[in-house]
UniProtKB/TrEMBL annotation:
PANTHER family in the cross-refs: PUROMYCIN-SENSITIVE AMINOPEPTIDASE
Co-factor requirement: Zn(2+)
Family classification: Belongs to the peptidase M1 family.
NCBIfam families xref list: pepN_proteo
Protein's recorded name: Aminopeptidase N
EC annotation from Swiss-Prot or TrEMBL: 3.4.11.2
Keywords noted in UniProt: Aminopeptidase, Hydrolase, Metal-binding, Metalloprotease, Protease, Zinc
Organism annotation: Acinetobacter boissieri
Record-linked Gene3D superfamilies: 2.60.40.1840, 3.30.2010.30, Neutral Protease Domain 2, Peptidase M1, alanyl aminopeptidase, C-terminal domain, tricorn interacting facor f3 domain
Pfam families referenced in this protein's UniProt entry, alphabetically: DUF3458 (PF11940), DUF3458_C (PF17432), Peptidase_M1 (PF01433), Peptidase_M1_N (PF17900)
CDD domains the record matches: M1_APN
Length: 868
């Protein structure tokens, strides 16, 4: 018997993509009977299986108490199987068989929030990627698809009993217990199995699909949160329509359920027909939820809904292909969100996340290709690279193809692979076949790590009236991936007349065939150049418009050219990008701030009137963390903090009364459109924070009035931040008032923790006070993230006493919740860029914790980080 040859069953070892083997048995049907009791749960399972490849019958199982195993009604003796901590291997099995197992599990003590667990009074599941093996013995891998029938039984104190699919039957077991039987007609991998047991209220609605199917929509939450479910319900219906219109994909079941749970390791989970959501990603109401969080709720609702096709009906062959479903689904939810608000701002926000999280990840010790070729713990690969860079790859292909060809390509993918577990190659092949454009070179993006650098050089020939752009691409050498090749880079280009600010019509034979008017050049070699003809004067060039490719652009812009683009670029994204590039130079290369200030003065007043949300983004100053990601050695958090506050002070003073005048001209309450009101609120808060740099009484009074008078939490929190972070006399009062008002609203209270943890001059004692506050709870990832997120937003604190805090927390979570423990350590991955003595101190702290780490999750992350 050769168990080691099967990559899925090597416990505690590296798994390699190249070792993939088909499962030995298919599962034709699954019948589960889950009986929940207070101190244990019984799971009985009946699997009908059929051999499809040579090898033993391997059932994966972790932390299961095996009570009985039968094959074709015969109870097996211990001699007939091998059982260890990871699997049950049964020898000498027939071609076709009925396998029955009975196990006991303990959701009531499961702190890892994986498998079946108890969150408060609610029993819920989280099975992606490998949680199902903590519920029952099963070939728990995404390429084993089956139809599931689930009987759920519990005490009547839990009136809600849910599982995937349609309700077949429900009834009483006895005076105290009841049951429900659910049948899911669609074949699915076990990671999409879900069940829920608890006492919840429900918001109901319905949606009629383009095929005429009347779908019952239900959002389950605790009673008092039901009024906060309407925004999510509207977003769900909107997503269903959007997917029909943009991808021709209607919903396929008669019901769609969402359950809100407050203890959840990530945002949400796309279980077939029964999504389970972190409350933070489903509850939304302007009184309790910030505008940013409302936008996030809508995008996560869309994301999980879109998975119904990209992920569920067509799933991944193995977990190396994770970015197939995640990258594509993120691209789809980003496109959906671009339709909900200013498309430019959505793009700005998505690229900001990419540049501040994915670029640093890809430049450090945790760098990996969007499709990695090995892993120890797959949970460590739900990363910005898999999600965000994965989305960018799809965006590049969609942009190159244009709407009609992209749609022909996706139609072909759904036609070929519906009901299958597939690979990234299958996706690219379908997209190429359907669109008629060979996209195979894009596979390189999936298989190579690192952010490519795109070097561009420009030459204008005044006599010939030609303008030449020369391109070069390079990738940082990576010992693990020695064979790096040039990738296809779509470069969106515009040329502007330097005197009038108007855009030149482009004449060139080198642009991509479909996009001559849009100025899209497909650069896919190590070096190449293009020539524009009939260019009357040396132009100002705008490159990578809309961030047409996820690369680091190196181009020798003058500060004047950047200031010109801030004023004249019509692509809102590149207008913003020009502000950021100019600010990076001012902050990191010591350039003068004047050209930035002049450009703002010229540009902002009109943008404030036309698109307040975009105006708020044009005032973004790169965060300390983002600036840190551009510094590869001798990084001093104190220095970066100082130059950044100095710049903010200079800009605040130079713009004079602009802040106050603009602040007073805004009245979000008068706006009927959410997006308009959101824009005004964002701008109001930025105006307030610039004014606060003066630290005068009038500004603090304005902030306190905004805090006290507004019913909208975005305004309240904007004001609270100013009061707390600038140590206004009203700060303590305002914090106390907020606490009293929101102490029973966990998501709002998370913000209260976050703001305090993000105080620029937080002390170790204050951090300790937050982490020992009666409302701090190590069993609730949202609360941990609130404090750690606040702390990490201030690198000066994060890299001093924050390190010890993070390391101790990781050590605790290593045992209790290693998924979260591992994430927490990922934030320390750039320790090696620090200036001494910090560098050595952090290294020592990381080394000190290593011997006590037990989980695969934390130890894989720690050893990667230490290998920097
Ligand atoms: N697919 C889930 C993520 C599961 C993460 C497991 N550690 C949510 C999503 O991407 O939609
Ligand atoms: Zn997803």
């Amino acid at each position: 018997m050769n168990i080691a040859a099967n990559p899925v069953v090597q416990a505690d070892e590296t798994v390699y993509l190249k070792d993939y083997q088909k499962p030995t048995y298919l599962v034709e049907s699954v019948h589960l009977d889950i009986q929940v009791f207070d101190d244990y749960t019984i799971v009985n399972s009946v699997l009908h299986m059929q051999r499809q490849a040579e090898g033993p019958l391997v059932l994966l199982g972790r932390e299961l108490e095996l009570k009985c195993v039968k094959i074709n009604d015969d109870v097996l003796s211990e001699a007939q199987y091998q059982l260890d901590t990871e699997q049950l291997v049964i020898l000498n099995t027939p071609e076709k068989l009925k396998l029955e197992t009975s196990v006991h599990i303990h959701p009531e003590t499961n702190t890892m929030l994986e498998g079946l667990y108890k969150a408060g009074d609610l029993f819920v599941t989280q099975n992606e990627p490998e949680g199902f093996r903590k519920i029952t013995f099963y070939p728990d891998r995404p390429d084993v698809l089956s139809v599931f029938t689930t009987r759920v039984e519990a005490d009547k104190k839990y009136p809600i009993l849910l599982a995937n699919g349609n309700l077949l039957e429900k009834g009483e077991v006895n005076a105290t217990r009841h049951y429900a039987i659910w049948e899911d007609p669609t074949k699915k991998p076990a990671y999409l199995f879900a069940c829920v047991v608890g006492d919840l209220a429900v918001l109901k609605d319905h949606y009629v699909t383009s095929e005429g199917r009347d779908v019952a929509l239900e959002i389950y939450a605790i009673e008092k949160d039901i009024p906060k479910c309407h925004i999510a319900m509207e977003a769900l219906k909107h997503s269903m329509r959007w997917d029909e219109e943009h991808y021709g994909l209607p919903y396929d079941l008669d019901n769609y359920m969402i359950v809100a749970v407050s203890q959840f390791n990530m945002g949400a989970m796309e279980n077939k027909g029964l999504n389970i959501f972190n409350t933070a990603c489903v509850l939304a109401d302007e009184e309790y939820t910030t505008d940013g969080a409302i936008m996030r709720v809508q995008s996560v609702i869309a994301h999980e809904y879109f998975h119904n096709w990209t992920g569920n009906r067509i799933t991944c062959r193995d977990w190396f292909q994770l970015c197939l479903k995640e990258g594509l689904t993120v691209f789809r939810d980003q496109s959906f969100s671009e339709d909900l608000q200013s498309a430019a701002v959505q793009r700005i926000d998505d690229v900001s996340v990419l540049k501040s999280h994915q670029f640093p990840e890809d430049a450090g010790p945790l760098s990996h290709p969007p499709r990695p070729d090995h892993f120890v713990e797959i949970n460590n690969f739900y990363t910005a690279t898999v999600y965000e860079k994965g989305a960018e790859i799809n965006r590049m292909m969609a942009t190159l193809l244009g709407k009609a060809k992209y749609r022909a390509g996706t139609d072909e993918y759904f036609r070929r692979h519906d009901g299958q577990a597939v690979t990234v190659e299958d996706w690219i092949t379908s997209l190429s076949a359907g669109s008629g454009v060979d996209l195979s070179a894009f596979l390189r993006w999936y298989n190579q790590p690192g952010t490519p650098t795109l070097h561009v050089h420009a030459d204008y020939d005044a006599t010939a009236k030609t303008y030449q752009l020369s391109f070069k691409q390079s990738l940082k050498a990576n010992a693990k991936y020695p064979d790096l090749k040039a990738v296809p880079i779509p470069v969106a280009v515009a040329l502007f007349n330097p005197n009038t600010g108007e855009q030149y019509t482009l004449h060139s034979s080198d642009l991509f065939e479909n996009h001559v008017q849009d100025g899209m050049y497909l650069f896919d070699q190590d070096e190449a150049s293009i020539v524009f003809t009939d260019v009357a004067q040396a132009p100002v060039v705008s490159l990578l418009r809309n961030f047409s490719a996820p690369v680091n652009l190196v181009f020798d812009y003058s500060d004047d050219a950047l200031a010109f683009l801030i004023q004249h670029e019509t692509n809102g994204f590149n207008q913003w990008q020009a502000t950021q590039t100019l600010l990076e130079r001012i902050l990191l290369n010591g350039h003068a701030a004047q050209s930035y200030i002049d450009a703002l003065k010229h540009t902002l007043p009109a943008v404030v009137k036309k698109d307040p949300l975009l105006a708020s983004r044009l005032l973004d100053v790169p965060s300390e963390n983002y600036l840190a990601s551009l510094i590869d050695n001798n990084y001093s958090p104190e220095h970066v903090k100082a130059i950044r506050s100095q710049l903010i002070q200079t800009v605040a003073e130079a713009m004079g009364e602009f802040w106050k005048d603009t602040y007073k001209s805004l009245d979000p309450a008068k706006q009927s459109e959410f997006s308009q009101a959101m824009g005004e609120r964002a701008l109001k808060n930025i105006m307030l924070s610039y004014m606060a740099t003066q630290k005068d009484k009038e500004v603090f009074d304005l902030a306190f009035a905004q805090f006290s008078d507004s019913k909208n939490i975005t305004e309240r929190l904007g004001a609270l931040k100013v009061l707390v972070w600038y140590d206004a006399p009203q700060a303590t009062d305002a914090l106390a008032t907020f606490y009293t008002r929101f102490k029973d609203e966990p998501l709002a209270l998370d913000q209260w923790f976050m703001i305090q943890a993000a105080h620029p001059n937080l002390t170790e004692a204050q951090l300790k006070a937050l982490a020992t506050h009666p409302d701090y709870d190590l069993g609730t990832p949202n609360r941990i993230r609130a404090v750690i997120g606040g702390l990490n937003s201030r690198p000066v604190n994060a890299w001093s006493f924050g390190v010890q805090h993070a390391v101790e927390l990781a050590k605790y979570l290593d045992e209790k919740n290693p998924i979260i423990g591992s994430r927490l350590l990922q934030a320390l991955s750039r320790w090696y860029t620090l200036a001494e003595p910090k560098r050595s101190e952090v290294l020592q702290a990381l080394k000190d914790v290593q011997p006590s780490i037990r989980s695969k999750n934390v130890s894989e992350t720690l050893s990667s980080i230490l290998n920097a």
